[in-house]
Design goal:
Order of helices and strands: HEHHHHHEHHH
Helix content: 55-70%
Shape: elongated
Distance between the termini: 28 Å
Number of helices: 9
Structural class: mainly alpha
Number of domains: 2
Strand order of the largest sheet: 1-2
Largest sheet: 2 strands, parallel
Strand content: under 5%
Radius of gyration: 23 Å
Length: about 230
């Protein structure tokens, strides 16, 4: 199946969610000349499944989120005096460049170590995000096809391939309605052993096999959120 979008970074979809109300504008009842334009990220970020999962995740993974917040604060508190010390030392006349470099390296090591620690703490949260996105992606082709047929559209484009289009070509709301029907909600807790599609592909490539398919329930049928 052709991939419609890669597992998006949280920031990318969050931005789409903020801009979606403006992007999904009222459209004419019939697209002109059988052509439609769909902003996939905006539709995904505006879907009921995605928005509900975002809210549910704050509760389901509250322990990890709180732990990461506390650890991030502790790392910042550890780094602040080191930054101040480095800044003060660098402003001194005849500052020891070797010593400054050592201080800078120490700061960098703490930052990198802290980032790895935070990624590990938030690993289940990131995995949940990817799992929800895969469930939505599995329903997108059908949502687009259903919306296109309902509007007698035979060619669907994305905004990055269009230089200009009248609002009548905008199919975002039509696809969103279909997606909400096909997938009212999504599971936010992945089944044991589930890994994101990109990692499955990497594992399959290393093993010289075809990529493993996602669990059938998650890939083909709407599921209820927890």
């Amino acid at each position: 199946m052709t991939k419609l979008f890669k597992p998006a970074l949280a920031a990318g979809l969050a931005l789409a969610a903020l801009t979606a109300p403006a992007i999904i504008a009222p459209v004419a009842a019939q697209a002109q000349q059988g052509i439609g334009v769909v902003n996939i990220q905006a539709v995904v970020a505006s879907s009921n499944a995605y928005r509900t999962a975002q809210d549910q995740r704050q509760t389901t993974y509250k322990a990890q989120i709180d732990q990461a917040t506390q650890r991030r604060t502790a790392i910042q508190q550890q780094l602040e005096p080191l930054f101040t010390q480095l800044q003060t030392a660098s402003q001194q006349a005849n500052a020891d460049q070797g010593q400054l470099q050592q201080q800078a390296q120490q700061i960098q090591q703490i930052e990198q170590s802290g980032q790895r620690e935070l990624q590990q703490i938030l690993g289940p949260v990131a995995l949940s995000q990817a799992y929800v996105e895969e469930q939505i992606q599995a329903q997108l082709p059908a949502a687009i096809e259903n919306a296109a047929k309902a509007r007698s559209v035979t060619l669907v484009l994305t905004p990055d391939t269009v230089l200009y289009a009248d609002a009548a070509y905008n199919m975002n709301q039509a696809v969103l309605d279909q997606l909400n029907t096909l997938l009212p909600s999504a599971q936010i807790v992945p089944p044991e052993g589930w890994v994101p599609p990109q990692l499955r592909e990497q594992q399959a490539a290393q093993a010289g096999q075809a990529p493993a398919q996602a669990p059938a329930a998650a890939a083909t049928t709407p599921v209820q959120g927890r």
